[in-house]
Amino acid sequence: YLVPLFFILMVILFWQCAPDSPQSLSAEMSAEIAMLPSESGAMGYFNIKSIKSSPFLAFIEENLEENPVYSEEYQEFIDATGLDIRNDIDEIYFTFTQNETEDDPTVFAVVKGNYQPERIMTYIMEEQKGSDVQEKKYADHTIYIIDDGEFAVCFVDNNRLIAGHENSIQDRRKKSSQDQKDKLPESLKKNIQGLKYTKQGWMLMDAQKFVNEMMAEFNQRQSENFQGLKSLQSINFSVHFDEKMKFHSLGQFEDAEKAGLFRDALKGFVATAKLSMSEDREAIDVLNKIKIDTKKDEVVIQFKMTQEDIDKLKEKRKAWAIK
Questions:
Q1: Cα(291)–Cα(250) distance, rounded to whole angstroms?
Q2: How far is residue 323's CA from residue 101's CA, in Å, rounded to a whole number?
Q3: Which of 18, 61, 203, 213 could form a disulfide with 44 if both were Cys (CB 3.0 to 4.6 A apart)?
Q4: Strand, helix or coil at 176?
Q5: Would the CA dihedral through 174, 176, 179, 182 be positive or negative?
Q6: DSSP class of residue 298?
Q7: Are 67 and 86 in contact (CB under 8 A)?
Q8: Are 72 and 89 spatial neighbours (Cβ–Cβ below 8 Å)?
């Protein structure tokens, strides 16, 4: 009996210690992504409902001294529209597209939740008095156009809202009405395959615009330390909440050498942060959980935070307050 028992114990130990396996996209998510604007510089997804139901988020909410969202003005919004963003928003798909002629990116979003469209639009119309809000019928739906078409909203039904540029909304409705089954572009497929967690929250970015803006804000020393950042081609972030908060990021560089330079710079940054907190053991313990590695031309960053970590930091904060 000892041999089978030993084998079972080893299997359990291996299962508990094994790293999380990458999560694949559901068929529903693949279909939603395929109909998002294809020229986007950034794309993302958040399952608000799933995140809010996680033990980790429940623990965070229990430890908040006050509700950071609630206010009298917000209650007035709820009473007028019947929409409580904290409870009625389930999922969000979004994209950002950088325009060469404008500083601000164009945003497009598909927001799934529970809506009362007439009450919401009555509230918006009243709030926008003095501004020109147009109504346009398209594919049996009403598009509410604000700011000359630069921003518009459309309620597909009581459970789905589309927001963004008028042309993007029309394109989305056209695809839906014709039941077009777009396929994911190969470049997008490759980026998605790098995601560790797909079920609750993730974001993909074409890094060049982001990098150029960041480097412009650096001083000379920072620019020298992060030279490898200039060769960053794409980057993704993903998170997952259960009993822990898990974070994973993957950046793809021009080559392995540039990836190594950036890895070393990041590790140096974390080491400096730990030195500045030399008397704060709890904060250092949290920083020690940041794992930075390279795999050929990729830099991988992983981090996990537990409820115990939150407790330690909370107790430390109380101790500071007493002092």
A1: 12
A2: 53
A3: 203
A4: helix
A5: positive
A6: E
A7: no
A8: no
Listed residue (177, 159, 164) closest to 91, CA to CA: 159
Taking a C-beta distance cutoff of 8 angstroms, is the pair 251, 207 a contact? yes
pTM of the model: 0.82
- State the DSSP code for 125: H
Query: Would you give per-residue pLDDT tens digits along the chain (323 residues)?
Result: 333 443 434 434 443 444 566 788 888 888 888 888 877 788 999 999 999 999 998 888 777 655 656 688 889 999 999 999 889 999 999 998 876 666 677 899 999 999 999 999 989 888 877 567 888 998 888 999 886 667 899 999 999 999 998 888 988 888 776 665 556 667 677 778 889 999 999 999 887 766 776 666 766 666 666 666 778 888 999 999 999 999 999 999 999 999 998 899 899 989 998 898 888 888 888 889 999 999 999 999 999 999 888 887 777 666 544 44
Token duo for residue 115: 């809506």
Contacts 24+ apart (CB under 8 A), 112-115: 112/159, 112/160, 112/161, 113/83, 113/88, 113/89, 113/159, 113/161, 114/83, 114/88, 114/90, 114/158, 114/159, 115/83, 115/88, 115/155, 115/158, 115/159, 115/161
Instruction: Say what angle helices 117-127 and 72-81 make with each other, to 10 degrees.
Output: 130
| Structure-token match 């992983």, residue found | 302
Segment (H or E) for 43: strand 42-47
Q: Which two tokens stand for residue 43?
A: 């794309």
Which residue in the block uniquely carries the two structure tokens 């995140």?
Answer: 51
